[in-house]
Amino acid sequence: MRTYIRERVVDQLAHIDIQLAQSVADNLGITLTDEQRNLAPPKEVNGVKKDPALSLYAVPGGSIKGRVVAILLNDKTRASDVLGIMQALKTKGVHAKLLYSRMGEVTADDGSVLPVAATFAGAPSLTVDAVIVPCGDIASLLSNGDAVYYLLEAYKHLKPIALSGDARQFKARLNVADQGEDGIVEGDNVDDAFMTRLFDLLAAHRVWSRSSKIDQIPA
Hints:
Shape: elongated
CATH topology of the largest domain: Rossmann fold
CATH architecture of the largest domain: 3-Layer(aba) Sandwich
Largest sheet: 6 strands, parallel
Organism: Enterobacter cloacae
Distance between the termini: 22 Å
Radius of gyration: 21 Å
Number of helices: 8
EC number: 1.11.1.6
Number of strands: 8
Strand content: 5-15%
Strand order of the largest sheet: 5-2-1-6-7-8
CATH class of the largest domain: Alpha Beta
Helix content: 25-40%
Order of helices and strands: HHHEHEEEEEHHEHEH
CATH superfamily of the largest domain: Class I glutamine amidotransferase (GATase) domain
GO molecular function: catalase activity; heme binding; metal ion binding
Number of domains: 2
InterPro entries: Catalase_clade2 (IPR024712), Catalase_clade2_helical (IPR043156), Catalase_large_C (IPR041399), Class_I_gatase-like (IPR029062)
Keywords: Heme, Hydrogen peroxide, Iron, Metal-binding, Oxidoreductase, Peroxidase
Structural class: alpha/beta
């Protein structure tokens, strides 16, 4: 992108929110002018200074209907986990996206067939609101660079992550202590309590308590 385009975008942001403009400018290596730093804040529109309808955080614990959750499939995925996840998501109007290392179908541990919606690389974590890893052959995921990167990126972007059964081995890759941390749901299997914790995190949108760790994540 041409330099003048970056400068123009930063200037537009300075007319909206000087702190946001400064943050973007720092990352782009741009120095704000004194004129930009002293711009008057935007005037109220029809007497409205802030509209809660435009904020994801204005109503804590709001509806999660329409959110998208990625389910990272593995070889011999535990079918009962996937079934429990899909049923729980459906009750909340949350969309599930089944991902795997290749397109096609995956055979679960009970012989049932799961259709793959996209690959790990083809539908990055940027496109979802949370990630769930059901139990199964977790070694196949731990040795898959795309799957590991998927979780690292989701973690870095402060998204909720849920790990069932042996999938808790991913905590080491995320540098999460054995006792766990806020924003990481874990359990021996997928049950009501497991999904309720995930829904609570989805309603909060992001795991802000993780912010201090993101610069350490290689994603």
